[in-house]
Each structure stands twice: as structure tokens, then as C-alpha cells.
Amino acid sequence: MAWECGIDGCGAVFEDAESTIVHQATEHTRQECQVCGTVVPDGYLAIRHAFTEHSRAEYVRAYGASSEEVRNREELLAEVEDVADMETIAAELKR
After folding, report:
1. Whole-structure pTM over 0.85, yes or no?
2. 18, 24, 64, 85: which could join 43 in a potential S-S bond, CB 3.0 to 4.6 Å?
3. Where are the domains of the chain?
């Protein structure tokens, strides 16, 4: 299964989720969380931050997200978490 970077129409394609996440974290501009102000890597890691550190209600208020947008992001998180090795991602990002 190929993984495509979905940030701003980037479209870069990778063989695995880990490479995609590392790409997002290193090749795209970091984003400020609209809930708490923390600066986080864009893409999956930004979504993961928002959904693990904040409630759905906080996310909806801060980003004006619809329930469908929330569901889509939750599904993406679940899909990535099913296959991604977070230790590999962390090791790559420490380099």
C-alpha cells in the first residue's frame, strides 16, 4: 500500500506510513495548535496532538471542524496507528 502526503496538495508518495510521517514532520512547516499554542509538525503528528491532548469539543471550537471532518481525522489516526511503528518514527526524527 502506498502512502501519500496530504498536506496542501503535496502529493509525495511513500512505501510506508513511517516515511510519510517523517516527511511531513521534516519537509513541511510546523503548525501552531489553535487550542493550546504548542508548535507541532504538520500532518499526522498535528492531528495526533489535537486528538490526544484535547477534547473533540475543544478541537471543533478551535478549528471550526464539522463532525464529518472530525470523523475523517479519527479514522486517519486509527488507520495509521494500526500500521505505523512510532519508535521508528521517533528514531528517524531524532537524527
Report:
1. yes
2. 24
3. 1-91
| Nearest residue to 16 via CA among 5, 7, 8 | 5
C-alpha cell at 22: 517523517
Q: What is the pLDDT along the chain (95 residues), one digit of tens a residue?
A: 899 999 999 999 999 999 999 999 999 999 999 999 999 999 999 999 999 999 999 999 999 999 999 999 999 999 999 999 999 999 999 98
The rounded Cα 84 to chain-centroid distance in angstroms is 12
Q: How far is CA 30 from the centre of its chain?
A: 11
Q: Rounded to whole angstroms, how far apart are CA atoms 7 and 47?
A: 12
